[in-house]
Amino acid sequence: MKHFRKQLLVFGLVILTCMGMTFSFQVPVYAGEILEQPINSVQVSDPQSIPSKESCIPIGEKIDLNNANALAFKDCPGYYPTLAKKIINNGPFETVDEVLNIRGLNLKQKQLLEDKLDFFTVSEPKTDLATRMPPRPMMR
């Protein structure tokens, strides 16, 4: 019985010590301390080179529908990879408006294309289809 009490006492002291070590390192943080910290901001050297949510490409640039790689559409929500693949596989296009005639487009895809027609251009095809479509692992 004495032995059991001694073990129980040692076990209790070990538990209390562990709990004390766990909770003693926690320091409360007050909202005042957080609000008093300086706010560090980053200045962008050329804000026009950043795509806006409406454009998905840098201002002043356009995606060439006949020569663009599928990755060119990556920053355009709803385009990459499915719609980009359809655009590339159905080119070359004579005019930008021809992209609306791609067979198999659903209403959402057609609306996405109509909304962004100003961000596309067409030129003489210079690259082959294999170059424009990256390998499957890159498209994930």
TrEMBL record:
Subcellular location: Membrane
Pfam families found in the cross-reference section: PsbU
GO annotation terms (biological process): photosynthesis; photosystem II stabilization
Main location: membrane
Membrane topology, record value: Peripheral membrane protein
Gene Ontology CC entries for this record: extrinsic component of membrane; photosystem II oxygen evolving complex
Entry keywords, A to Z: Electron transport, Membrane, Photosynthesis, Photosystem II, Plasmid, Thylakoid, Transport
Entry's family note: Belongs to the PsbU family.
Protein name: Photosystem II 12 kDa extrinsic protein PsbU
Natural source organism: Acaryochloris marina (strain MBIC 11017)
